[in-house]
Amino acid sequence: MCMSSATRTRTLPSCKTLRVCAVFVNGFVCKDPKLAKSEDFLFSNLDKLGNTSNKFGSKVTLIDASKIPGLNTLGVSMARLDVAPNGLNPPHIHPRATEILTVIEGSLYVGFVTSNHENKLFSKVLNKGDVFVFPKGLIHFEFNYGPTRAVALASLGSQNPSLIRIGESVFGSNPFISDDILAKAFQVDKKTIDWIQAQFASTS
């Protein structure tokens, strides 16, 4: 069994099937198959509420190859999403994975934007039991417009889906992207850009 987070789409053979296993992938080392145990395939306590007391009012608990070593090379992971009333899982991208999400408590307004020149928004209000798909690499979000906590479970098509939050990446980079560049890109004045960057700097 490998304890790594390979990111290629093609399914790789598990090191558990190999006699010799001394391969590193993305910083994780394969484990001697003789030392593999049931706990390498287990994660507990996903039923616990996520702490949503933050600026966005949401919490994502990601279960990937770093949490379950046995996921390595299997091309799948999952996450629990908790969203407080008026909370948001802000616009973000998973560069390596398609995501399929189902609401198990409350309601969520979700959507994604296409990558073509039309920038079309596909969105829907999801209630308990509803399922929605976010294609790989597209900007998407989840917002709880309701009066109670919302909880959802998501499956992702990679053991290491990665995460890029749009706002934090653009306005909270280290060091900052030049306000000249961002002012031109967003067609606003530099003072506006400086103010937005300050919000991300003060809450990072």
Automatic annotation (TrEMBL):
Check the record and name the InterPro entries matching this protein: Cupin_1 (IPR006045), Germin (IPR001929), Germin_Mn-BS (IPR019780), RmlC-like_jellyroll (IPR014710), RmlC_Cupin_sf (IPR011051)
Q: Which residues bind Mn(2+)?
A: 92, 94, 99, 140
Q: What is its main location?
A: secreted
Instruction: For this UniProt record, give its keywords in alphabetical order, as a comma-separated list.
Output: Apoplast, Disulfide bond, Manganese, Metal-binding, Secreted
Write out the GO MF terms. Answer: manganese ion binding
Per its UniProt record, what Gene3D superfamilies does this chain match? Jelly Rolls (2.60.120.10)
Where, per UniProt, does this protein localize?
Secreted, Extracellular space, Apoplast
The record's Gene Ontology cellular component field reads: apoplast
Metal-binding among keywords: yes
Q: Record's superkingdom?
A: Eukaryota
The segment(s) forming the Cupin type-1 domain are: 44-194
Enumerate the residues binding oxalate.
89, 94, 99
Membership in a protein family: Belongs to the germin family.
Official protein name in the record? Germin-like protein
